[in-house]
Each structure stands twice: as structure tokens, then as C-alpha cells.
Automatic annotation (TrEMBL):
Belongs to the cation transport ATPase (P-type) (TC 3.A.3) family. Type IIA subfamily. The chain crosses the membrane at residues 55-76, 82-102, 248-268, 274-299, 759-784, 796-816, 836-856, 868-884. It comes from Aromatoleum evansii (Azoarcus evansii). This is Cation-transporting P-type ATPase. The keyword Ligase does not apply. Keywords: ATP-binding, Cell membrane, Membrane, Nucleotide-binding, Translocase, Transmembrane, Transmembrane helix. InterPro entries: ATPase_P-typ_cation-transptr_C, ATPase_P-typ_cation-transptr_N, ATPase_P-typ_cyto_dom_N, ATPase_P-typ_P_site, ATPase_P-typ_TM_dom_sf, ATPase_P-typ_transduc_dom_A_sf, ATPase_P-type_domA, Cation_transp_ATPase_P-type. It comes from the Bacteria. Residues 2-75 form the Cation-transporting P-type ATPase N-terminal domain. PANTHER family: CATION TRANSPORTING ATPASE (PTHR43294:SF21), SODIUM/POTASSIUM-TRANSPORTING ATPASE SUBUNIT ALPHA (PTHR43294).
């Protein structure tokens, strides 16, 4: 039998305990049997193994093989710079591995956050006496005492309660505090049982005794922790693309090396010379600077997002944001302010708007006779406790705080001495207090209209007097408020007779009689001011927004209508609907144009996310509670609330909103889309230089001429002159109209045919032609003729290879501006929005100048100083590339205007 269905005495007997709790010896025995009351972490890999894993992913393996091949080449043919290249590649692997390990080490601490959320101590009955023990020492059968403000340390069944209300949002997602009592209940699951207190929740009002029936991993809290631990994280789209690019690079480099080896053998090149040359080709085609450029570009994007109040915890999540097609958002605290507020006040038979909080002159002026009673009940009938550290000065039930704040805005505050109280209890759904002042004692009562209104015989009239209760008018006003998704509270009072008391429990029903209905209060958790605009931007960007909340359907639908998320009749999926459907049915249900998921649990939310992913969606999920952790971990991008969220949610998420605003998600998605565009920009830039690095090797083998570019000079481009300009492209701001485009499909490639064709077959070919033209021009000017051999240290050869290297750099300077946009002209794009471009340009020019003119640069890279004439040869070639590329862009723009495909 479920523990919430039984009578208290039967539950105690079943747990082998009594109302006075366990004995010390029995508690010790059970502790040895059941273990500590804490969430256990699943075994983790040793730090050394996790560190080693960062150096064994596929792209790292490619770099390791490239370094090994470079060392082999250095062993058999020293003096070609292969040793320095091998050392540089190993350095790149080490820097990237250390950085990635540090990110992962900081990110994988969700289980510590789960344990830290539980309270450290609890008040427990042992041998009939109250004592304070460590929460981790609680065992099933312990009887604990809880007061307002306490966190619940384990799953418990209430055995005694007075005015008990708990905030269960971190476990169930329900935004409103709920009452708890000791009576048996019929409920389908533990989360719905009104006589259970679940670990991780907190008491907001009243006090209780409860018997512990589950501890540690056997609690609902522990079950969710287990679900979170065993929910596999999906690799981000960027991780999948990097893996794909790694395979392509490995295949292309190996194929080219093999081709050059066999071509060399076919034309009579000795075996080892052909092998070493093939190794050089393979190493030259591995973009050593790709991973550090990607990593640093993502890191800069996280800094930009942080300035927009989005803290990214996992670097690949930056790019994943840009592919988001669906946002599954929580309601409370994300779409709404997570702060109850009275928005409708019915008094004297008419509805009015409450006075804004802090309104000037709120000193009681304007309080009419028909309002006085309403405000007196709102200000005086509550179970709040003063707390100077909380905004508003009170801590407790947010609904009661809202009523007190509403009264305070009119200048009405609690007055008189409280002489009695009938606390809120499950089943009563109301509370009353007796307040003495000015020689009179008033009973102030508030609660659910269905229980308060029937106890009223009169209602306040518009002139301040009283008339008989008009049940139809009250019901009509009540229905109107409910249709708006408001929580409606009825407020009533009566003057007590001389000597009448409300302290005796037997007098509860008798005291709360013959009341005067002062009016109704409509309370809501209002939407954030900027949410409607943010939802509209999502719709414009082709992103679906689905509200997934533990709150009531009516409340969720009302909020959805108010923020423009849905129309009048959205598809509402309750938690039981999600549980009942199979995968295909759920996918079809989620395909509805407007969907709201309400009253969902952790498992339901996880199923919704997985169903959307099976449909091919890239899913972003928001959450703030323990119950959200599994879905946050399973989503393509998990987004936790920074202010109102639990540590569990933050540690399970990829991104944390520092301001808890839904609008911040939209800004982050815009940055994510910009990151994808920027990755394509700098990949085009980096890959373009691979062709002028490769073609000289082709010319060397096929035409039997001096090698135009040495391996160490290739390294100077890949890890030197190209690095900072590529990072500058990675820092480009979002382009205009970015959020008017639909999300890119999950199948979209970071490196596709169009990018390869532009980089390799157009820009790369132009750079190759220019660099070889200058190389042969310098040789011809120096009197070289084909067939004449040149030594490695021949001054003419050093000058010619330097000219080839410098031409590639000059062409890349022009390419830096061409790559800022694949279709728009380069010159209208100003530099003010991306000053890193100027730094990148300056760094590139200073570095090539150091390589060409400094003795240390000449010694390391095998270069020689160039005269001014050689530099002048390069400029028209760079301008020609600019003209040809801008002509290509103009042709594409005209094709787009005529409605032709833009490929």
C-alpha cells in the first residue's frame, strides 16, 4: 500500500516506530542497514584518465600522427624544419587538451550540487526527546519536527500539522505553495500526495511532525538525481561537425600524400625521397591552427554572451544555440517575474486596479469605505514572518506577501494586537486571525472562494454599507478572474462578540460564520515586460516556443495568451497525457502549431525533449528546479536560471541566465547564430591558405623546379600569420537580418561544398597563382633558368621562397576583408564594430616583417630580406583577387534577386 493512503498509526506501525520516534540504538542499527541520507555520486573516471581523454579524440589523433610523421621526416632528412613542426604540433595538442580538460572539470559537478542542496541538520525525536542531528544520519522511522523556513531533509509522511504549507517547486515545478496535512489521501503518485513532504522542498508556513520513510537515493530527490546521472548528453552540433571535418582532413591529407608518393616513384624519384615528400604533403594539409582558433573563437563568444547576461559553461554550446529550432521554456521565473502580485481588486461590487507599489502619497489617502475592510483583511490576515533581508520585509507564502504589499501601497498596515489564529490547513483552504484594536476584536478571514463565500451572509456595498450576498454576481466575477488565469482569494471579516474566542480548535467552524464578504483578490505571477517581444522575435526567427511547466493548465494557457505565445485554444498536454502516449503519438502531438505542456514531472519533461529530438529538432530547455536537471542534461542546450535556479539545475545546464529573462535566451541565440557564421568565415580564411601551401609542392614534383615554399614556412602561415586574423573573423558581430532567417537544419554542414569550392577552387587558386608568379619572377630577375639547381642556402633561393611566403600573407590580408561576408561587398563593412580586425591585420604585417627582415626570423624560417620592388609586384595581384571575388559576390546577389538558387 502507498504510504500516503494509510492512517497515521498504521504508517508508524509499518515503519516500526511511534510518535516519540526511535531509540538511539535502533537509529544506529538502521543507519548501518540503510546507509547515510545523502545522494551518492556514481563512480567517476580518475582525473588522470579524464585528462588523457582530452588528447585522444579524433582530431588530436590526427595531429599526433602528423607530429609523428614530421619526426620521421626529420630523422631521415634533417634541416627541413620538420623537427620544429613536430614540436609546434605537440604544443598545439597540449594547449587545447589542457584548456578542454579545465572546462570539463569545472562543468561536471552536478552531483555535488545535489548533495549541497540538502540541509545539514535536522530536529529529530530520539528516545522521546528532541535533539539536533546531522541530516545525513536520519533513517526511516525517525520522527522530525519542521518549522517555517526549514528545508525538508528526507521524504516524510506528515503525522501532525498546523497551518503547514510547503514550496515544492524544486521537485514538482508547482509555483504556488501547497498545504500539507496528516489525513490519508488518494493520489496516483508521491508528488501529488498532500500528506507527504519530499526532500529538497521547504516549509513556508506552519509547523509539523513527520515520520521519515525514505532517505538518500531512495527519496524522490535521489530518484531524480539518478535519472540525471544516467541521462546521456548528446554531442553538440559543433562537436559532430568537428569530428566530420577531422575525418575529411585525415582522408584528404592521406590521399594526397599517397598520390604524391606514387607520382614521385613514377617519375623516378628515389623511394625515401618520395616517402619524405609524401609526409610533408600530409603534414602541410593538416590545419594545425584549426582547433586553437575554434576554441579561442568560442571563448570570445562566451565573453560577449556574458555581457548580455548569458553565462556559457560548455564551449560547444555556444554554436549549438544558433541551430536551436525549439525552446522548451519553464513558466515561473522565466516567462514570469516569479513574484505574486494583486492585479485585480473587487470591492464594493466593482472591480478596480490596485494602487502601484510605492505610489507617491500612499498614506491611507483615497481609502474609501468599501475598500477599508478589504485592505484591513489583506494587511492583517497572514502568517508571514518579518525578514529585513527579503524585499518587502516579509518572508513566507508569496500569495500572502502580494496581499500585504497591495494593502501597504494604499498606506494600510497591520494594526492592533493579534489575539487568536485559525491557521490554514489542508481541507479547510482558509485561515483566520483575530485582531484587537480600538476596543474591538475583528475576525479577519481569507481563503478559497468556494469555502469562504458560503460562510458570508452579507457583502460590502459600493457606499460602504452591507447588502445580502449576491451569489450569482460573485460567481460571475470569480469566473471572469479565473478565465484570466488569476488565483482568486476571497476576503471577509466580522466583529466578534464580547468574550468570543477563536483560540479553541472546537470553535473553528463556529467562529468563521456570519462573515461580511469584503471582496475578491485576483493574484498572478505577471509576465516579464520584455517577454512578448522576445516571443515575437522567436517566431520571426522560425523558432518554436513550447511552455513546459509543472503549474496548472489554466494558468499556463492564460500566460501563453498574454505573452502572444498561443491563441485562444492551444493544444494542452498534461503530464498524464505525456506518460500515456507512445513515442510516435507524442511526436505527433508536439507537431501541433501551438502546444503547452502542464503539470509535468521530471520524466515527462525528459520525454518531451527526447520526442522533439527524434523529430530532428535542436532543442533548448530552460529550468530552475531539481526536477528540471534530467531534461537540461538531455537537451542540445540546457539553460538554467542564475537567480532563482537551484545549484542542481545550474550544474546540469550548458548555459546560465544571470538575469533569468527569457529575452536573454533570444539574445544568446542571436550570438549563437553569429558564431556559426563566424566559424564558416574563418574556416574559409584558414582553408584558403592550404592551397598556396600545397600547390608549390605540386610544382616542385611535377615541374622539377626548386621548392617554392618550405615546411617551416608553411608552419609560419598556419600557426603564425593566420591565427589572429582568423580570430578576428571569429569575433564578428551578428549581421543585420540574422534573426529574420529560419534556423539552419540539423543536417547543415559547417564545411559544405560551397565553402570548399570558394576556399579551395577559387580564392586558394588565386593565391597560388599570385605566390608562384612572384616566386618565379624573383628567380627570373636573379638570372635563374629552368633546369638550373639551387642550393637550400643560395641567396637567390632564399629570396624567392621569402617572396612566395610574403605574397601568400599579402593575399591573406586582402582575403581577411573578403571573408567577412560571403555575399555582401567588403567595403561597406566598417571596422568600428570589430576592432580586433585591425589588431589581426597589424599582427599579420608585423610578423611577416619580422620573418623577412630580422636576422632571427631569417635563421628560423630560411628567409632573406626583400626589396621594395618585390612588394610592389604583390599589390596588383591582391587587388585582382579582390576584384574577382567582389565580382563573384555581385553575380550571386543578382541571382538571388532574380529568384535563382544562391549556391
Amino acid at each position: 500500500m502507498d504510504i500516503w493512503r494509510g492512517q497515521v498509526e498504521d504508517v508508524l506501525a509499518g515503519l516500526g516506530t511511534g510518535r516519540d520516534g526511535l531509540g538511539v540504538a535502533e537509529a544506529a542499527r538502521r543507519l548501518a542497514t540503510f546507509g547515510r541520507n545523502r545522494v551518492e555520486a556514481r563512480p567517476r573516471q580518475l582525473l588522470a584518465l579524464r585528462f588523457a581523454r582530452e588528447f585522444t579524440h579524433f582530431f588530436a589523433i590526427i595531429l599526433w600522427l602528423a607530429a609523428a610523421l614530421a619526426l620521421i621526416a626529420h630523422r631521415f632528412d634533417p634541416g627541413q624544419g620538420m623537427g620544429a613542426l613536430a614540436a609546434a604540433i605537440v604544443g598545439v595538442i597540449f594547449v587545447n587538451g589542457c584548456f578542454s580538460f579545465w572546462q570539463e572539470y569545472r562543468a561536471e559537478r552536478a552531483i555535488e550540487a545535489l548533495a549541497a542542496l540538502l540541509p545539514q541538520r535536522a530536529l529529530v525525536c530520539r528516545d522521546g526527546a528532541l535533539e539536533t542531528v546531522l541530516a545525513q544520519d536520519l533513517v526511516p522511522g525517525d520522527v522530525i519536527v519542521l518549522e517555517a523556513g526549514d528545508n525538508v531533509p528526507a521524504d516524510c509522511r506528515v503525522i501532525e500539522a498546523q497551518g503547514l504549507r510547503v514550496n515544492a517547486a524544486t521537485v514538482t515545478g508547482e509555483s504556488r505553495p501547497v498545504g500539507r496535512g496528516a489525513e490519508p489521501v488518494e493520489a496516483a503518485r508521491a508528488e501529488d500526495a498532500r500528506n507527504l513532504l519530499l526532500a529538497g522542498t521547504s516549509v513556508v508556513a506552519g509547523h509539523a511532525r513527520a515520520v521519515v520513510f525514505a532517505t538518500g537515493m531512495h527519496t524522490e530527490f535521489g530518484r531524480i538525481a539518478h535519472l540525471s546521472q544516467h541521462t546521456e548528453e548528446r554531442p553538440s552540433p559543433l562537436a559532430l561537425e568537428i569530428a566530420r571535418l577531422s575525418r575529411l582532413v585525415a582522408l584528404a591529407a592521406t590521399a594526397l600524400g599517397a598520390v604524391f608518393f606514387f607520382v614521385g616513384r613514377a617519375i623516378g624519384v628515389p623511394f625515401w625521397d618520395s616517402a619524405l615528400f609524401a609526409i610533408a604533403i600530409i603534414v602541410a594539409n593538416v590545419p594545425e591552427g584549426l582547433m586553437p582558433t575554434v576554441t579561442l573563437s568560442l571563448a570570445m563568444a562566451t565573453q560577449r554572451m556574458a555581457r548580455r547576461n548569458a553565462l556559457v559553461r560548455h564551449l560547444p554550446a555556444v554554436e549549438a544555440l544558433g541551430a536551436t529550432t525549439v525552446i522548451c521554456t519553464d513558466k515561473t521565473g522565466t516567462l514570469t517575474e516569479n513574484r505574486m502580485r494583486v492585479v485585480s481588486l473587487l470591492a464594493g461590487g466593482r472591480e478596480r486596479t490596485p494602487r502601484p507599489a510605492g505610489a507617491e502619497g500612499a498614506n491611507g489617502a483615497g481609502v474609501t469605505a468599501e475598500l477599508a475592510g478589504w485592505l484591513a483583511v489583506a494587511a492583517g490576515c497572514h502568517s508571514l514572518r518579518p525578514d529585513a533581508d527579503v524585499e518587502g520585509g516579509y518572508a513566507g507564502d508569496p500569495m500572502e506577501v502580494a496581499l500585504v504589499e497591495c494593502a501597504t501601497a494604499w498606506g494600510v498596515r497591520e494594526s492592533g494586537r493579534r489575539v487568536g489564529e485559525l491557521p490554514f490547513e489542508t481541507g479547510r483552504n482558509r485561515m483566520s486571525v483575530a485582531v484587537e484594536g480600538d476596543g474591538e476584536v475583528w475576525l479577519l478571514c481569507k481563503g478559497a472562494p468556494e469555502v469562504v463565500v458560503p460562510r458570508c451572509v452579507l457583502q460590502r456595498a459600493s457606499d460602504g454599507g452591507t447588502v445580502a450576498v449576491d451569489a450569482d454576481a460573485v460567481r460571475s466575477a470569480l469566473d471572469a478572474m479565473a478565465r484570466r488565469g488569476l488565483r482568486v482569494i476571497a476576503l471577509a471579516r466580522r466583529r466578534l462578540d464580547i468574550g468570543e474566542t477563536v483560540a479553541d480548535d472546537r470553535a473553528k467552524d463556529e467562529a468563521e460564520r456570519d462573515l461580511i464578504l469584503e471582496g475578491l483578490a485576483g493574484i498572478e505571477d505577471p509576465p516579464r515586460p520584455d517577454v512578448r517581444e522576445a516571443v515575437a522575435r522567436c517566431r520571426e526567427a522560425g523558432i518554436r516556443v513550447i511552455m513546459v511547466t509543472g503549474d496548472y493548465p489554466a494558468t499556463a494557457v492564460a500566460i501563453g495568451r498574454e505573452i502572444g505565445l498561443t491563441g485562444e485554444a492551444p493544444r494542452v498536454l498534461r503530464g498524464e497525457d505525456v506518460a500515456r502516449m507512445n513515442a510516435a503519438q507524442l511526436a505527433l502531438a508536439l507537431d501541433s502549431p501551438e502546444v503547452i505542456c502542464a503539470r509535468v514531472t521530471a520524466e515527462h519533461k525528459l520525454r518531451v525533449v527526447q520526442a522533439l529530438q527524434r523529430r530532428g529538432d535542436v532543442v533548448a530547455v530552460t529550468g530552475d528546479g531539481v526536477n528540471d536537471a534530467p531534461a537540461l542534461r538531455a537537451a542540445d542546450i540546457g539553460i538554467a536560471m542564475g537567480r532563482g535556479g537551484t545549484d542542481v539545475a545550474k550544474e546540469a545546464a550548458d548555459m546560465v541566465l544571470l538575469d533569468d529573462h527569457f529575452a536573454t535566451i533570444v539574445s544568446a541565440i542571436e550570438e549563437g547564430r553569429a558564431v556559426f557564421d563566424n566559424l564558416r568565415k574563418f574556416l574559409t580564411y584558414i582553408l584558403t591558405s592550404n592551397i598556396p601551401e600545397l600547390v608549390p609542392c605540386l610544382v616542385f614534383v611535377l615541374l622539377r623546379v626548386p621548392l617554392p615554399l618550405t615546411v617551416i614556412q608553411i608552419l609560419a602561415v598556419d600557426l603564425g600569420t593566420d591565427m589572429l586574423p582568423a580570430l578576428a573573423l571569429g569575433a564578428e558581430p551578428p549581421s543585420p537580418g540574422l534573426m529574420q532567417r529560419p534556423p539552419r537544419p540539423r543536417s547543415a554542414r559547417l564545411v559544405d561544398g560551397a565553402l570548399v569550392a570558394r576556399a579551395y577552387l577559387f580564392l586558394g587558386v588565386l593565391e597560388s597563382a599570385a605566390s608562384l608568379a612572384v616566386f618565379f619572377g624573383v628567380l627570373a630577375a636573379g638570372g635563374w633558368v629552368r633546369g638550373e639547381g639551387l642550393g637550400r642556402l643560395d641567396p637567390l633561393y632564399l629570396e624567392a621562397t621569402t617572396a612566395c611566403l610574403a605574397t601568400i600573407v599579402v593575399m591573406q590580408v586582402a582575403n581577411l576583408f573578403l571573408c567577412r561576408n560571403a555575399r555582401q561587398a567588403a567595403w561597406p563593412l566598417g571596422l568600428g564594430a570589430n576592432r580586433l580586425l585591425l589588431w589581426g591585420l597589424g599582427f599579420e604585417l608585423v610578423l611577416i616583417a619580422a620573418i623577412v627582415y630580422l636576422p632571427v626570423g631569417n635563421a628560423i624560417f630560411g628567409t632573406a630580406p626583400l626589396d621594395a620592388t618585390t612588394w610592389i609586384w604583390m599589390l596588383p595581384l591582391a587587388l585582382a583577387m579582390v576584384a574577382l571575388e567582389e565580382g563573384r559576390k555581385a553575380w550571386l546577389r543578382r541571382g538571388a534577386q532574380r529568384g535563382q538558387p544562391e549556391n
